[in-house]
Structures are given as structure tokens and as C-alpha cells.
Specification:
14 helices; alpha/beta; seven-stranded mixed β-sheet; six-stranded antiparallel β-sheet
Length: 539
């Protein structure tokens, strides 16, 4: 160091090819000017004073993704006298960190962070499912601190983590502009996507990015592909077979409506590849990666997309498309005036760990400018949107107008709500026989579910299917039985009793089991050469 010159913050970047393509781990030493040692996978981009696995609506070579309102992925950059770690502008991905006054560990993978710090999730803790489901309330109100065996770790959701001599703190991302009309909003959406598309295709990238998308017969994917089609998409994937919306996996009825988006792709001039949403039935080596992302494991319908990735691909989706719906946003539980974009659905929140291995960067187009949800909600209610309303509970006039004005005929999409995710029985269990056996052993050894109770699981699954779906067409006796039981109990007690899922406390156990298993099998040996966490972190 030059005499008289203050130390400069920065990164020491170390490639570790044993890590997943897009995974990274940083050990930050605070000091007067924070410095970080970073271990990263082969597809993490290294820039001047920064590293990133992501895309943003600005010039790639400038690397100023921390200043973007529309950044998707993760990374970090030297900013002033400190380091800024940047999470996605979409709730589908987050950052994890753990630290004390001297050192902070940060990663885009929870199992990787736990492995590096010698920590694990606690089998005795029963709140992991409520921690994950709290995302339904939006990024401001969701739970941020996760219980572990050595105290806890924290997550950054739609925010940036700044670390300087004063310590570590989470700050807001830059905000998009306000929107008064539909045209204001869509002009911004199209322009921001155009800048993202330029960033994706920038020749200065060391690793070329493919561009994938998904297409159903629903509102969201039709609208986002109508916007993206002009810039070109390498592959679009569709799951033709929708699931039975009143049954768990293994009990689905045949003859469900098709969700095949091939015709819409043809109308938009896009290449379309059909994938099998049940491909995991033929073999499922990535199972723990999905359950380590979200305890319901419902996003495994997209598993086959990972097999088409050459190196790294950006995956366009319609996640959070319910912000284009005017009805659901009236419900306080789904909407917060601060623009927290609470949601009705956590689809695509469960591939956070899988995507790092497969090489996928999520781009949920509805989350571009998503923190202006109040403005978007107001736009859905404007009179100019009346010609694009269909009525009913599945009505998204913004998405319909985007698609129809770009040539997709009205009858081709958004006629009924379908679903291609996987509905595993509740409480969720691993699907693969070997992994299920290991999980049941784990539940017994940790005294979470003794062997004698495990014998009742088939009955619990059947009862939970009835309680969950309560279909007056499929479960007539149970539906009306529960209805009248609630009425009687309400008269006797003055309250409406909840008939919830049985053994719901097990829901978080599969998340705990899977995260710890990924940490042990995927990361412990890889990180064995790192300094002991006790040298820099208090337990």
C-alpha cells in the first residue's frame, strides 16, 4: 500500500469449478475498507471491481447493476468505501448472509452459506414452512431471519446489502418511475425489456447467454412473450398437460384441459418445444435441490428445461403476473401500499438452488417495475381498460391488452385458469423411494415423527386432499360436512373454526432435511479447505 493512502475496498475472486455454475460465496472482512474473498462457479462473470450472475437494464461493461431498478440474478460491486451485494428485483431469488462485527459471509445459496459457516438448519424447529410462506405478504413484510443450529442467518429480498466500516445493512433498490396511464407503464416495460435484452446479448460477456421462455394458454406468459418476441427467443417451452386442480400427484384425473401454448408461439413467430411436466417420474437426481428451494417442490414441472441449457440461459417467466389482476389486489393480504408486491402464488420461488446448478437466471417480466404496484393496480381500474376486461375471477386486462395489441387473438388465451405445477401430497415427502426412506429415517431419528405414526401417512394424505381442495363436485359429502360443521361450531363458539392441513408442522421438515443434505453432499467437501468459521464468526 502506498504510504499515506487509505486502503481500498475490493474482491479477491477465486474460481472453484466444483461449485455450481452460478453459485458464489463471499467472506467479507470489515475493517476501514471492507475486502472480500469470493469463491465462485464457472459461469459467474468477473468485471472490474465486481462479479455477477445476472442481467440488468443498463450497459454490461459499465457493471453498475447496483444502480438498476431492474436487476435479476445476484452479484456484488465496489461502491465508494464499501461493498454492495445486490439481490434480484424479483422475490423469486434472494441473498443469504451471516456475520458479526468483524466478518460477514454472503451467498446466493443457503446450503452453501451454511456449509461455509459450519451451520445447519435445526430439525427441532417447526417454523420453516411459515418462514417460506411469509413471502406471500411481500418483500417488506416477509420474515427475514431464519433459525439455524448456530443462531440464524438472514435473507435479503428485493434489496441490496451494503457493507462498509459502519457494518452491514440492507437498503432499498432504486425505484422505477411513476405511471399514470397504461401507455406510460407499457412504454416503460417495453423499453426496460429492450435494455435487458441488449444486456443479455452483450458480446463482452465471457459466457454467452441463451434466452428461454415458457408459454401456456394463460395471461402472463402470453403477454410477456408478446413483448419479448420482437427481440428473438432461442427456445420457448410449453407443458401441454394441465394438472387436475382437485387432486394430489398420483390421484390426478385424466381428461384435463390442455395448456399447450404451441399455437400462441406460432402466432408470435416463436420456436416451441413441448416438455413433460412429469419427467421426474423417470428419475429425479435433483430432488433435494427443489425441496431445498421451497418445501412444496411444486416447480419440478420445469425440471426438463435445465436439460436444454448449453451453458447459461436467461429464463423469461410470468411469475407475479397477478399484479396485472384488478380483483385480487383488493385483498389486503395480497397488497401493501408500499409496493411490497405480495402475491397469491409462490410459483417459481422454488428453483433458487436448482437454477444455480442448471445455469438459469430468472427474468419474471411482470416484476419489471413491480415496486410501482400501486400505479399498476390503478391502471387496471381505468376506463380505458374496459374493452379488455373479461369479467370473473380470472381477469387480467393489462396482460390481455398487451397481447391483443400485438396480434394474439382474444380466444387463444386467458379463457380459464389452468395449472401445470406439481401438487405433491401434504405434508410433502420426497418422491424417490431411496430419498423417501432416508427422510423417514431422519424424521424418526430426530424424533419429529416416530415410526408408529408414519404408518398413518397414507390416511393423512387422503384426508388432507379433501381438506385442501374441498371440492363440492369431487368431494360432495366432505364439502358439505365441513360446511355444516363450521356453521354449528360458529354458533356454539362465536368463531369460525379453521379446518387446516393435518400434520402441517411436518411441512417445514422436508425443507430442513433437503437444505442440510445439499449442504453436506454438495458443499462440505468442496469447502473443506476454507478457514474454520469459528476463526471469524461467533456461533
Amino acid at each position: 500500500m502506498t504510504p499515506g493512502r487509505a486502503p481500498a475496498p475490493g474482491f479477491t475472486l477465486t474460481l472453484n469449478s466444483a461449485l455450481p455454475k452460478l453459485a458464489w460465496l463471499a467472506r467479507v472482512n470489515h475493517g476501514p475498507a471492507p475486502t472480500a474473498v469470493v469463491w465462485h462457479g464457472t459461469a459467474v462473470e468477473c468485471l472490474d471491481g465486481a462479479f455477477v450472475e445476472g442481467i440488468w437494464d443498463g450497459p454490461y461493461e459499465q457493471g453498475r447493476f447496483d444502480e438498476s431498478a431492474n436487476f435479476f440474478g445476484s452479484g456484488a460491486r465496489v461502491v465508494g468505501d464499501g461493498l454492495t451485494f445486490v439481490s434480484s428485483a424479483a422475490m423469486v431469488d434472494c441473498l443469504w448472509y451471516k456475520g458479526d462485527q468483524d466478518t460477514t459471509w454472503v451467498s446466493n445459496s443457503l446450503p452453501l452459506l451454511l456449509s461455509a459457516t459450519g451451520d445447519r438448519l435445526s430439525p427441532g424447529y417447526r417454523g420453516y414452512h411459515t418462514f417460506q410462506d411469509s413471502l406471500l405478504a411481500g418483500f417488506r413484510r416477509c420474515e427475514k431471519d431464519l433459525v439455524t443450529e448456530r443462531g440464524g442467518v438472514s435473507r435479503v429480498v428485493v434489496g441490496n446489502l451494503e457493507i462498509d466500516r459502519a457494518g452491514a445493512r440492507v437498503v432499498d433498490k432504486p425505484l422505477p418511475p411513476n405511471f399514470a396511464t397504461y401507455q406510460d407503464y407499457v412504454d416503460y416495460l417495453v423499453a426496460a425489456y429492450g435494455r435487458l435484452r441488449a444486456n443479455i446479448g452483450d458480446p463482452a460477456r465471457r459466457t454467452a447467454l441463451e434466452l428461454f421462455s415458457t408459454q401456456s394458454r394463460g395471461y402472463e406468459t402470453t403477454a410477456v412473450n408478446a413483448i419479448a418476441a420482437g427481440g428473438g427467443i432461442d427456445q420457448v417451452f410449453t407443458c401441454p398437460d394441465a394438472r387436475d386442480k382437485a387432486s394430489y400427484l398420483g390421484r390426478e384425473r385424466a381428461g384435463q384441459p390442455s395448456d399447450d401454448g404451441s399455437e400462441i408461439c406460432q402466432r408470435l413467430g416463436l420456436p416451441c418445444t413441448k416438455i413433460d411436466r412429469l419427467s421426474f417420474l423417470k428419475g429425479f437426481p435433483e430432488e433435494t435441490l427443489f425441496f431445498a428451494g421451497y418445501y412444496r417442490g411444486m416447480d419440478v414441472n420445469l425440471r426438463e428445461i435445465g436439460q436444454h441449457v448449453s451453458s447459461v440461459a436467461v429464463m423469461i417467466t410470468g411469475a407475479a403476473g397477478d399484479m396485472w389482476e384488478s380483483i385480487a389486489l383488493d385483498k389486503e393480504v395480497f397488497h401493501e401500499k408500499t409496493g411490497s408486491f405480495g402475491t397469491t402464488d409462490l410459483t417459481l420461488h422454488g428453483i433458487g438452488e436448482y437454477r444455480l446448478h442448471a445455469g438459469l437466471i430468472q427474468l419474471p417480466v411482470p416484476m419489471i417495475a413491480g415496486r410501482r404496484r400501486d400505479d399498476i393496480h390503478h391502471i387496471t381500474r381505468l376506463g380505458e381498460m374496459d374493452p379488455f376486461r373479461m369479467g370473473g375471477h380470472y381477469d387480467r386486462p393489462v396482460a390481455r391488452r398487451i397481447a391483443e395489441e400485438r396480434g394474439v387473438e382474444r380466444e387463444m388465451f386467458g379463457q380459464q385458469k389452468m395449472n401445470v405445477t406439481i401438487a405433491f401430497p401434504k405434508p410433502a415427502m420426497p418422491f424417490s423411494p431411496e430419498l423417501r426412506a432416508a427422510y423417514l429415517d431422519y424424521l424418526a431419528e430426530e424424533k419429529v415423527l416416530p415410526r408408529w405414526k408414519q404408518a398413518f401417512l397414507p390416511l393423512i394424505y387422503r384426508l388432507n386432499e379433501v381438506l385442501h381442495y374441498r371440492s363440492p363436485k369431487r368431494y360432495v359429502a366432505a364439502f358439505y360436512g365441513l360446511y355444516y360443521a363450521q356453521r354449528i361450531l360458529r354458533k356454539l363458539t362465536g368463531r369460525t373454526p379453521p379446518f387446516g392441513i393435518l400434520w402441517a408442522n411436518l411441512s417445514g421438515s422436508i425443507f430442513c432435511f433437503s437444505v442440510n443434505r445439499v449442504a453436506q453432499e454438495n458443499y462440505d467437501q468442496v469447502l473443506a479447505a476454507l478457514p474454520e468459521p469459528s476463526d471469524t464468526l461467533s456461533g
